[in-house]
Amino acid sequence: MGDEAAREGVRRFLAGLRVGDVCHGTVAGVSQSEMSVTLDGFPGHPLGSVGWSDGSWQRSFADVAVVGRGITGEVVAVDLDAGRVRLSTAATENPELWAFLKRLRPGELVAGTVAAIETFGVFVALDEGPDHPVYPGVGFITHPELSWRRFEEASEVVEIGERVSCVFLQFDTWNGEARLSLRDARPDPFLGFAEGMEVGQRLSGRVTKLLPFGVFVQVADGLVGLVHVSELSAVPVTAPEEVVKIGDQLTVLVTGVDRERRRLSLSLRRA
Question: Do residues 268 and 250 make contact, with C-beta atoms less than 8 angstroms apart?
Fold first, then answer.
């Protein structure tokens, strides 16, 4: 069989697979990060792969990734161009969890309790569905999805044990968790504030942060605008510290309102 015919055979076989299908196969090779799998029904070439994060949560990757071992995995991605299918053995070991996560729909509101606060995000134990076999909660909120307002630490937004309602974003098949947004479940304060905002309007606010390119000024509860360094003074400055310091109360002029990107541009020198 020629190369083109072989590639066509691979494409035809993979075209018959769908995300959520359960496949059986045999481990054909092992690397540090994944194992290749020869799928039942296509013995000529190892088309399947199981990454270390898609492996068993009950056993170590080294225990599962043994050449010649038979495995069962759920299809989580099919790449026809690359001729590969990504499998998850964690999915087939935790059918109740996977079934629950696949029932959720983007935009659906789910409720739960904050179970853990980490530097990379917040885990939420959901009211419905099973517990997660590895993480403190089935739900997970990344930092950008915690709040419309600026914050330094997640603990400024939520605390452990707090009840929250969140919008379901997507099923994260890598970690077997529900990606959530606490921010989207609450009104965007910027849109309400910007409703009647016009260029040329004067505002009062407090300097909250100094950066090399400018100054952030809080003009309402949780709402900040940027005064670019070029808008700090009529006299050119090289650093914001030459003009203002954190905590200063300023009167600034609105020079731009970008509702789509939620950005408020301000000027001190023109005020």
Answer: yes
Task: Classify strands 249-258 and 263-267 as parallel, antiparallel or unpaired.
Answer: antiparallel
pLDDT per position as a tens digit, 236-270 = 888 899 899 999 999 999 999 888 888 899 999 98
Residues 269 and 233: beta-carbon distance below 8 Å: yes
Q: Which two tokens stand for residue 182?
A: 């606490």
Strand boundaries in 104-189, DSSP class E: 109-118, 121-126, 139-141, 163-172, 177-181
Max Cα–Cα distance, the chain, nearest Å: 77
Length of the chain: 271
Q: Is the pLDDT of residue 176 over 70?
A: yes
pTM: predicted TM-score of the whole model, two decimal places: 0.73
In sign, the C-alpha dihedral spanning 38, 70, 53, 140 is: positive
**Do 114 and 107 touch, CB atoms closer than 8 A?**
no
The structure tokens listed for 240 are 């914001």
Contacts of 259 (CB under 8 A, 6+ apart): 190, 191, 194
Of the CATH numbers 2.40.50.140, 2.40.160.40, 1.10.730.10, 3.40.50.300, which one belongs to the domain with range 3-93? Answer: 2.40.50.140
Q: Burial level of 237, CB count in 10 A (0-12/13-18/19+)? A: middle
pLDDT in tens, 194-204: 777 888 899 99
